[in-house]
Amino acid sequence: MAADPYREADDAALPREKRRLGVLWRLTALLRPHTGRFALAVVTLLAASGITLVYPAAAKYAVDMGMSAGKATGGGSTHDLDLIVIGLIAVFCVNAVLVWLRHYSMSWLGERVVTDLRGLVFDRIVTLPMSWFHERRSGELVGRLASDVTVVEGVVGSELSMALRNAVQMAGALVMLFVIDVHLTLLMLAIVPPIVVTTIFFGKKIRAMTRSVQDELARVSGQVQEAVGAIATVQAFVREDHEARRYRGGIESAFRKTMIMVRWRSWFFSSAMTSGYIGVALVIWLGGRALIRGDLTAGDLTSFFLYTFLVAGALADLAQLWSSLQRAAGATDRLFAVIDTTPEIRTPEKTTPLPAGKGAIRFDKVSFAYPTRRGQPVLTEVDLEVAPGEVVAVVGPSGAGKSTILSLLYRFYDVDAGAITLEGVNIRDLALGDLRHALAIVSQEPVLFSGTIRENIGYGRDGATAAEIEQAARDAYAHDFVTSFPDGYDTLVGERGTKLSGGQKQRIALARALLANPRVLILDEATSNLDAESEAAVQAALARLMEGRTTIVVAHRLSTVRDADRIVVLDGARVVEHGRHDELMARRGTYHRLVEHQLIADHRVAS
User: Fold this and answer.
1) 222-239: per-residue pLDDT in tens?
2) Is the pLDDT confidence value at 129 over 80?
3) Which of 41, 286, 301, 564 would be a feasible disulfide site paired with 105, CB 3.0-4.6 Å?
4) Which domains are seen in the chain, by residue range?
5) 143: left (phi over 0), alpha (psi -120 to 50) or beta
């Protein structure tokens, strides 16, 4: 098969290579735009961690000084000890300032990274093709932006800072331990390899379990959104108990998986801490023997113990942080899996400008099957030409491919064969923005956002003025009912426009389409769910909207297409007839049969 010149090279391998770099690399890459603040955080972290290493050294001098002075004088002077304590208090104050700066800077960076990560995920989601969304539930996507990012937030916001601090303190403490006694330090470090092996082993297990838990929670989020979005159907069929059981089953499954993960983490912490305490006990035993032999002073042994506790504490914290990083890795893998997804439908590298025109459209031998049903073609070698300013109706039985034609025109999917042109240019050569700005759709169930009427109309064109929004509402015969509300254009419409009637929602959608000022208007059964009075108002608005524009009408109620310039009949994935209403009725073909069936159905409903 010949290569498709419009399909860019598959770069799916690139995200996989990126993911191998690990969660830390991917997250720290988000810090690069903020190098100045990151440098401040690192400097204060290093300074604060370095000051912490002074305390055991001060304890050494205090102990040795006290013991030597006591032996020499029988009681000793406290003057030098007072100076050490005063110096320590001054160091404490400096350290407090450094800790504040470190904590604030690292917290700011953590919150900034999480904010950027959320933005990157959503930026990618809104560019992905329809086929991607059809394979996932919206609740799952919301879960990724909520629960997954929350896991990452805790790690990047505080635990990464703790990891760096502990690493610096441990490195500094180890240097001081080698200065005090090399042999004793090497014996103490013999316990480290088992801790590292344990950390790696448990970390892999915990990461896999965390991903499983997050997947389960995302699935449950999808169930919740599904049930809430269809709450009227749930209650109408008395399925409240069923949905509650389904939800409880999901969260119980997540709970069981979480507890398995918790048990592994508990074993991990227990093993790491036990190993650390065994090391401390070994140091106490060997250090005490060295003191008795005279190899170490009391101050040396005191500081050695304190530095050992610093190393042990840092190791224990790093072990816990490693577990947290593994949890974050499971969540971050899912987030970057979205970010790294390359949209199949995207603007080509080299685009052709959209020529001036009034909406000339051509389908040239277009064939298409949905990716999930490749063996069932929806369109087969469809030829369709729409002249500028023409009103063309597309009709046919259910499943004939009427809505698919609209999806292909918008390039929500790409054709499998053939080509679609707008103003003589293949739509795959156009920038997606240019193509979609030239089109506007008014559907059977208009989608409104849960903002104000002004915001919903203004959605049709970025930067529209209040006067332009009001004029669009007037042209759509919506201004009168909008101004009858107490808040006028600032009236909140509710989620999906639930505070408005069907006719009101439809006219808001029409105003939005008018404001977009498209070359091609697409009407997907725009009046089928309205009462007679609302339909009359919407039809009047439609007549104004269609003036001077190419219009494609997808219709199920055939009575709405009688006045179209041309009617195209789809059946069996092909165009089987086209012509005006009277011509098609005289042929007594598929269109005639569809009209008769609808008349019979309407008669039964009326009787």
Assistant:
1) 777 777 766 766 766 667
2) no
3) 41
4) 16-339 (1.20.1560.10), 355-438+565-607 (3.40.50.300)
5) alpha
